C-alpha cells in the first residue's frame, strides 16, 4: 500500500510547527531540521512510517496544493503556521498592494477595532487571493468574513511582511487603519 501523503503532511507539520520536542528534533532559527533526523524520528514514533524515504517527502511536497513545507540541502522546514515559543526568523518582503484574511463574523469587528494579531501563532497569516482566505476562514466559521488588508500602505508605514509561499503572507501585526473592507459572499 502506498504512502498517504495527506497524513504524512499532517504528521510532519505537527513535528515541525508545533511540537518538535516530541520527535526529539532540533529546529534552527529559520525552522530547518535534517531530513534524515526527521525520517528516523517518524519511524520511531509510528511503525506506519518504517519504510519512509526522503523521496517520499519530496513527493509529499510536490503533490501538496498548499505548499506547507520546503526542502533544501538535506534539510526540511515548515514554511508557516508555527506555534512554538521560539519565534522563527523570516526575511522581510514587499507584499502585494492588497492581501486578505478570513475569520469568523464574531471576531471581524474586534479585528477592525484592535487590528490583526497572531494570537497563538508566531505570525498573522494573510492570503494573496480572497478564495484562499475564504477557505481558511471556513475553519473558523461556516460563513466566514473576508477582510481586505491594505498591505502596500501598511508596508509603506513600516509594517513588516514576510512571504510564506506563493499565496501565504505573514506579518507581526496589522493596525486597524489598514483593514478596510469585508468581502461578502464568495460562494
Write the layout of secondary structure elements.
Layout: H1 5-18, E1 33-34, H2 35-45, H3 54-63, E2 69-72, E3 75-78, E4 99-103, H4 105-114, E5 124-127, H5 130-137, E6 145-149, H6 151-156, E7 161-163, E8 168-171, E9 179-183
Antiparallel strand pairs: 1-3, 2-3, 4-6, 5-8, 6-9, 7-8
Percent range for β-strand residues: 15-25%
Q: Give the termini separation.
A: 37 Å
Mean pLDDT: 87
Class from secondary-structure proportions: alpha+beta
Biggest sheet, open or closed, and with what strands and sense? Answer: 3 strands, antiparallel
Strand order of the largest sheet: 1-3-2
Q: What string, H for helix and E for strand, traces the elements in order?
A: HEHHEEEHEHEHEEE
What percent of the residues sit in helical stretches (DSSP H or I)? 25-40%
Low-confidence stretches: none
Number of helices: 6
Number of strands: 9
What is the global morphology?
A: elongated
What is the alpha-carbon Rg in Å? 18 Å
Question: Can you walk through the features of this model?
Answer:
The termini are far apart. This protein is an alpha+beta fold. Helix 1 packs across helix 3. The strands form three sheets. A three-stranded antiparallel sheet has the order 1-3-2. It is built from six helices and nine strands.
Amino acid at each position: 500500500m502506498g504512502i498517504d501523503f495527506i497524513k504524512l503532511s499532517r504528521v510532519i507539520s505537527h513535528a515541525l510547527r508545533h511540537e518538535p520536542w516530541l520527535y526529539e528534533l532540533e529546529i534552527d532559527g529559520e525552522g530547518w531540521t535534517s531530513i534524515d533526523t526527521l525520517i528516523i524520528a517518524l519511524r520511531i514514533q509510528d511503525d506506519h512510517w518504517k519504510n519512509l524515504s526522503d523521496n517520499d517527502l519530496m513527493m509529499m511536497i510536490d503533490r501538496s496544493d498548499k505548499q506547507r513545507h520546503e526542502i533544501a540541502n538535506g534539510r526540511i522546514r515548515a514554511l508557516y503556521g508555527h506555534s512554538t515559543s521560539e519565534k522563527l526568523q523570516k526575511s522581510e518582503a514587499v507584499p502585494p498592494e492588497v492581501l486578505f484574511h478570513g475569520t469568523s463574523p464574531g471576531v471581524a469587528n474586534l479585528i477592525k477595532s484592535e487590528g490583526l494579531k497572531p494570537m497563538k501563532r508566531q505570525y498573522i497569516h494573510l492570503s494573496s487571493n480572497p478564495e484562499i482566505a475564504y477557505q481558511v476562514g471556513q475553519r473558523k466559521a461556516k460563513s466566514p468574513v473576508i477582510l481586505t488588508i491594505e498591505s502596500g500602505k501598511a508596508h509603506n508605514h513600516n509594517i513588516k511582511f514576510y512571504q510564506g509561499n506563493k499565496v501565504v503572507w505573514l506579518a507581526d501585526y496589522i493596525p486597524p487603519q489598514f483593514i478596510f473592507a469585508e468581502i461578502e459572499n464568495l460562494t
